[in-house]
Amino acid sequence: MTDILAAPATGAARGDAPAPASPTTQTQTQTQTQTQIPAPAPVSPAAPESPKSPEILEAPESPETSRPARLAGLARLGRRVRLGPLVRRAPAVVLLAATWEMLPRTGAVDPVFVPPLSEVLRAWYDLLLGGQLLEHFQASLVRSLTGFGLAVVLAVPLGLAIGWYRPVADFLSPVLEIFRNTSAVALLPVFILILGLGEPSKIVFVFYACSWPILLNTVSGVRTVEPLLVRSARSLGLGPLSLFRKVILPAAVPTIFTGIRLAGASSILVLLFAEMVGAKAGLGYLVQDAQFSFRIPDMYAGIITISALGLLFNLLLLAVERRFSTWRTT
């Protein structure tokens, strides 16, 4: 019974050698082995190494990277150039202010007629707070700028025409020679008689005084252009209009602006005289009224304001001149 119930043991259990597998079984086994063992992944070609970033590479700075540094350096250089003349000239102004302050206090001059600078500045501040200084300053500024602007608008084109066109010069020269030798101060009574004591007489007075420096310097600037420049331009085929626009006018700009700056100073000087003669407002009226009322510090405060106005006017004209003559190297 035991022999019947016991199942026949396999060769592996009996220790016998395994029976050789059939070809079909070997094929299935190889297929399963190939399925279970994954095939090696294809090796892709090595990717080229990416270049290092500019932050890692120690290379010279590119123009884009170094531009802010260059701009900062130029700004520092510009500040040094602008502050250089100011620093050199400041001691003279400080010395003048100290002398003005000390001479009256030491008794070298009468403090009644020449008060110390500190008292003058205090009077100037009081006039500014009271509004009188701004009122007189505005009146003088409007008259001066109006007459000066009219002189520039009319005298520059007329000077260009006289300097460039010989027939125009021959026609106008006799009249110009008569009026250029007539003082503007001598004609002020004529302007007052014809135009009255109002604003027109003062504006025309300033216009007349400013016209001559601008006109004469414009004519001189056109006529003194380097002849070699003119001959070279003509040899290149430039016509009269192109020659005037591209050669004559740029070359005459420095001389023209010299006349304009002289006219700017004249516009303030002659206006003060006109305001002292007949006006109810203006810096000239302020100075004269303070003198008549024996308010000496107020008088000097008005004089300081006039000097400051002339200085600002000149600096403005210098800036405009540099803007229109950027081609100049000096």
UniProtKB/TrEMBL annotation:
Biological-process GO terms, alphabetical: transmembrane transport
Annotated localization: Cell membrane
Keywords: Cell membrane, Membrane, Transmembrane, Transmembrane helix, Transport
Membrane-topology descriptor: Multi-pass membrane protein
Region of interest (Disordered), ranges: 1-69
Keyword Flavoprotein: no
Composition skew (Low complexity), residue ranges: 1-38
Pfam families from the UniProt entry: BPD_transp_1 (PF00528)
Domain ABC transmembrane type-1: 137-317
Keyword Transport part of the UniProt annotation: yes
InterPro entries listed in its UniProt record: MetI-like, MetI-like_sf
CDD domains for this protein: TM_PBP2
Transmembrane parts of this sequence: 145-166, 178-197, 299-320
A GO cellular component annotation in the UniProt record: plasma membrane
Family per similarity comment: Belongs to the binding-protein-dependent transport system permease family.
Protein name: NitT/TauT family transport system permease protein
